[in-house]
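Could someone model pyridoxal-5'-phosphate with this protein?
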Amino acid sequence: MNPLLSRLQPYPFERLRKLFADITPNPALRPISLGIGEPKHAAPDFLKQALAASLDTGLSSYPATAGTPALREACAAWVQRRYGVALDAATQVLPVNGSREALFAFAQTVIDPTRPGATVVMPNPFYQIYEGAAFLGGAEPHYVACDPARNFAADWDSVPEAVWARTQLLFVCSPGNPAGAVMPLDEWQRLFELSDRHGFVIASDECYSEIYFRDDAPLGGLEAAQRLGRTDFRRLMMFTSLSKRSNVPGLRSGFVAGDASLIKPFLLYRTYHGGAMSPVVQAASVAAWGDEDHVVDNRRQYREKFAQVTPLLAQVLDVALPDASFYLWAAVPASFADAAAGLSADEAFARELLAQYNVTVLPGSYLAREVGGANPGTGRVRMALVAEPAECLEAAGRIQAFLSRRA
Ligand SMILES: Cc1ncc(COP(=O)(O)O)c(C=O)c1O
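Reply:
Sure, complex below.
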């Protein structure tokens, strides 16, 4: 067996199952889960129709890994409209089966494990795929804590020069999961300078870019590069997806865009790996990237929901409206920590909330790693406000009751 498989950590939801194994949730209340970040708003009808219309022809041929020109052009046109960035659809865009597999596969393409000390830098907390991708690529992860005092920006300046010198790949996540922070231009500038100096590649995970609460749409990596005069997007690849934008996590559709000299080897890797997108999914994706009305409506639904739920939770928890994404990243009272039972405050909070009020939240420490004795997710929980507003409001009411009863 591949010995690197043994380095993979249990996925957060596996850890959650164990944490809850001996709990009987309050049977008087129906379960509400704020645990998994899976979009629940309705998938648009036109997208389903495009999917169905392509069935007759779409199932009868092997797709090209590069995707159809129509799909690549639809992706490039979206980037142009959304970010004002002109891309060559033939060389700077590639369809992928959702950003998850692409983030993983890209690391396997980029990392050279034969170079001593191969390192992948990532924020902490982080989307778990980054770490698994680094391990299976034969590299060591270097975790960079996100600082609550600076809107959860990763403290890139904490990375020692010697670590940057052996870094081959940097994952950035903007808007971030779990804190929803958007990376500003000056932070991009700093990372581009570091990439120029040390030669590492930047993988920019942007799958929450269309769900935002500020007036301005989140800055994208390609947009930042263009503003800074880096029109060749050297060493930069952005990852995006329809899962959250169009409420189709089951479609498995996204694309990457950026440096043509990275797209080429990535396409080669994917050709052997079997990363081609089904023609049926490609047809639906062309329709989805071409329509913005459903995205505006989806964003409106999230905005209304967050506007209602966040103030209720802010009365009892240290939590604020994020820049973007569909999560609340709330600090829980430190008094929940139960050293005797070996439970951090976030774990104990999640257990007691489930037991008493049948609401599931994800302990923040499961999304982060301990570095130097500190886990930057400890003491926080992630709440995904993906369900209908009534259900999210009900959850917020139960959390209020839970905390006032305890006080
Ligand atoms: C930060 C982040 N990146 C990527 C993904 C993967 O999404 P998908 O593969 O559906 O595009 C997720 C999914 O939850 C995520 O939270």
